[in-house]
Design goal:
By secondary structure, the protein is of the alpha/beta class. The chain has two domains: 3-109, no CATH class; 122-249, Rossmann fold, CATH 3.40.50.1970. The chain is 40% helix and 17% strand. The protein contains eleven helices and eleven strands.
Length: 252
C-alpha cells in the first residue's frame, strides 16, 4: 500500500463505490505480509515515503520471487540490491519488466515513471574506475527513489586536476555522493569545494594496508571538511537513499 493507493481507496469509500467493510478487507495486510521466512513491510511507503527494498544477498531465488510478488502487488516500482543473475531471474518470474543493472548489482522494476521529487540534481563522484560498482549502486538507488542523478567517474586525488576541471558540476549539485577506496581522501577535497551536503562512501578497493575499506572509512570519519557524512564500507545503497531523503526534504 502506497500513499497514492490509500488516497484512491479513501476516495472510493467517500464516493460510495467501496463499502467500509470492503476497504477494511483491503487494508488488512497494511502493516506487513507474513511469508515463509519473511515479513514483508507493506506499510513502509506510508511511513517512510518509499517501499521496502529487497536485499538479495543470502536469500534463495524462491524467497526473492515471493517477496517481489508481494511488494509488486502493492503497486509502484521495485528495487532489489546485491542481486546476481540468479536473483534477477527470480524477480523476472514476478515481473517480466525487471531490468538488471550488472555493475550496480541491482534489479529494478519500473511500472510507473520515476518521480522527480528532488530539489536538484544529485552527483555521484568516484575516485577511480574500480569504485564504479558501489557508485552505480548509489546511482540506481537514487534514481529509483525519484532523483535526477549524474555520475562523475575517475577523478581521484592522484590527479586532482581531473576533479577541478568539473567545478561547475560539483557546485551545481544539490547533494554529492563521493565514493573512494585506497586512502579515501577525495571526500575531504570535494567537501572543501562545495556548499552542499557530501555523503562519503568508503570502498574495499585498495592494497593490503587499506584493510578492505577500513583505511578510507577512518579517513572519511576524520575529515576536516565540514558537511561530510559517512556511510558504511561499500554501502552505495545507503548513500543513495540518504541523498534522496536530503534532496526530497529540500523541496518542502
Amino acid at each position: 500500500m502506497n500513499p497514492q493507493k490509500l488516497a484512491a481507496l479513501l476516495r472510493e469509500v467517500r464516493d460510495g463505490t467501496c463499502s467500509p467493510e470492503q476497504a477494511l478487507r483491503r487494508l488488512r495486510t497494511l502493516p506487513f505480509v507474513a511469508l515463509d521466512g519473511a515479513n514483508v513491510d507493506t506499510h513502509r511507503a506510508l511511513r517512510c515515503g518509499t517501499p521496502e527494498v529487497i536485499f538479495c544477498q543470502g536469500k534463495t531465488p524462491a524467497q526473492i520471487t515471493r517477496i517481489a510478488k508481494t511488494l509488486l502487488a502493492q503497486g509502484g516500482n521495485l528495487l532489489a540490491t546485491r542481486a546476481d543473475r540468479e536473483a534477477f531471474r527470480a524477480i523476472r518470474r514476478a515481473d517480466r519488466r525487471a531490468v538488471y543493472h550488472e555493475t550496480a548489482r541491482c534489479v529494478t522494476v519500473r511500472r510507473t515513471p520515476w518521480r522527480d521529487e528532488g530539489a536538484g540534481p544529485l552527483l555521484v563522484v568516484t575516485a577511480g574506475t574500480s569504485d564504479l560498482p558501489v557508485a552505480e549502486e548509489a546511482r540506481v538507488t537514487a534514481e529509483a527513489l525519484g532523483n535526477r542523478v549524474e555520475l562523475l567517474a575517475d577523478v581521484g586525488v592522484a590527479g586532482v586536476h581531473r576533479l577541478l576541471a568539473h567545478t561547475d558540476r560539483l557546485t551545481a549539485a544539490n547533494v554529492l555522493i563521493v565514493v573512494a577506496g585506497m586512502e579515501g581522501a577525495l571526500a575531504s577535497v570535494v567537501g572543501g569545494l562545495v556548499s552542499r551536503p557530501v555523503i562519503a562512501v568508503p570502498t574495499s578497493i585498495g592494497y593490503g594496508a587499506s584493510f578492505r575499506g577500513l583505511a578510507p572509512l577512518l579517513t572519511m570519519l576524520n575529515s576536516c571538511a565540514a558537511g561530510v557524512a559517512v556511510v558504511n564500507i561499500d554501502n552505495g545503497f545507503g548513500a543513495g537513499y540518504l541523498a534522496s531523503l536530503i534532496n526530497r526534504r529540500a523541496t518542502h
